[in-house]
């Protein structure tokens, strides 16, 4: 059985995805704080501030556990929020088609899949968001000529930097037995978290703005749409003899 076509309201979905992103912001902030504390502790240790070995072992273990806990919480919220963003993307692209935008490059399924294809995921998801932004402003034939704001380019640039830092962090974990490597990891985790804060805020702005504009487009189309039900009712109410005249 085929599902009915037509615009599907996703205001509630957008709101819940926003909540998940706010939760990820909290987790990212915890990672940032834990990274700074861990870096300070390791720096003090390197400079010989600690004299008692018992105190060193206890404090280092507590610091590492705090950082690991924050990272795991951040990872869990990133997975949940990321899933929400993918569902939102599917619905937003679907609605872009239903609102009448012609010449769209991405189907809903292809828009989601673009995040997982190696190589293509370095620019295709940006193009998906770009199309959503442009068509949320106009569904006319010239929508592709609408310029996107610099904030969108900043969002994607931050995403590529954060992605690259994640790869460097994975390589550095092979040397975590060294004190210097632990400090470097703390720095990388901190920078990654620091950049993830504006990255997430920009994503929040984009998804909420696109949803709001698509909803406004749908309402406008509904208001200007001919009332077919009234026309059919009038036709049924007209006697056959008057219709024949």
From TrEMBL:
Residue ranges of domain DUF4328 in the record: 58-211
InterPro entries in alphabetical order: DUF4328 (IPR025565)
Keyword Membrane: yes
Keyword terms: Membrane, Transmembrane, Transmembrane helix
Residue intervals passing through the bilayer: 21-42, 67-90, 154-173, 185-207
Region (Disordered) location: 217-245
Name of this chain's protein: DUF4328 domain-containing protein
Organism: Proteobacteria bacterium 228
Organism classification: Bacteria, Pseudomonadati, Pseudomonadota
């Amino acid at each position: 059985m085929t599902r009915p076509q037509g615009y599907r309201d996703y205001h509630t979905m957008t709101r819940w995805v926003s909540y998940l992103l706010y939760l990820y912001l909290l987790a990212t902030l915890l990672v940032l704080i834990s990274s700074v504390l861990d870096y300070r502790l390791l720096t003090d240790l390197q400079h010989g501030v600690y004299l008692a070995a018992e105190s060193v072992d206890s404090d280092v273990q507590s610091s590492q556990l705090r950082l690991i806990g924050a990272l795991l919480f951040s990872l869990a919220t990133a997975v949940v929020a990321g899933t929400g963003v993918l569902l939102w993307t599917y619905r937003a692209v679907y609605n872009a088609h239903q609102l009448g935008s012609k010449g769209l490059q991405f189907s809903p399924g292809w828009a989601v899949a673009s995040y997982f294809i190696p190589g293509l995921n370095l620019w295709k998801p940006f193009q998906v968001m770009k199309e959503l932004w442009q068509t949320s402003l106009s569904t006319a034939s010239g929508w592709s000529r609408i310029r996107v704001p610099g904030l969108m380019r900043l969002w994607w640039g931050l995403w590529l930097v954060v992605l690259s830092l994640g790869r460097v962090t994975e390589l550095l974990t092979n040397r975590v037995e060294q004190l210097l490597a632990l400090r470097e990891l703390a720095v990388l985790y901190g920078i990654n978290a620091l950049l993830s804060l504006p990255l997430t805020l920009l994503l929040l702005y984009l998804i909420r703005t696109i949803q709001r504009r698509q909803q406004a487009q749908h309402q406008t189309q509904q208001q200007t749409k001919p009332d077919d039900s009234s026309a059919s009712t009038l036709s049924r109410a007209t006697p056959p003899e008057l219709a024949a005249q």
